[in-house]
Amino acid sequence: MAHCPIGQLDDLRDLLEAIRNWPGVHEPRRGIFYLRRTPFLHFHINREGRRWADARVGRSWGTEIEIPFRATAARRSRFLREVQRRYQATAKASGLP
Fold it and tell me: Which residue, of 10, 76, 90, 95, has the greatest Cβ tally within 10 A?
């Protein structure tokens, strides 16, 4: 499954900016995030327009996280909380404080 084109992430600009500011996170390509040298978060979209994120949780990939277009503020907030929870687990597994 191909990654989501960056233009299809424009509605998530504020969420992506928040993630960019987490310790140890870098974005070698727009919309593809690493924690140190470990792939951490990226996005997909299918032909039907369903969009989701893959995010690592600890040392393995967790289940898909749905993040539809035109997501409500509550849905966006839940998405960011879930990614942050996974970030914390992955950071701990990677030895980050």
Answer: 90
pLDDT, residue 92, reads: 94
Predicted pLDDT of residue 71: 95
Residues 48 and 57: their CA atoms lie apart, in Å, by 27
- For the chain, the farthest-separated pair of C-alpha atoms sits apart, in whole angstroms, at 40
Rounded to two decimals, the pTM is 0.93
User: Which percentage of the chain shows pLDDT scores above 90?
Assistant: 92
CA–CA separation, 70 and 11 (whole Å): 7
Contact (CB, 8 A) for 54 and 64: yes
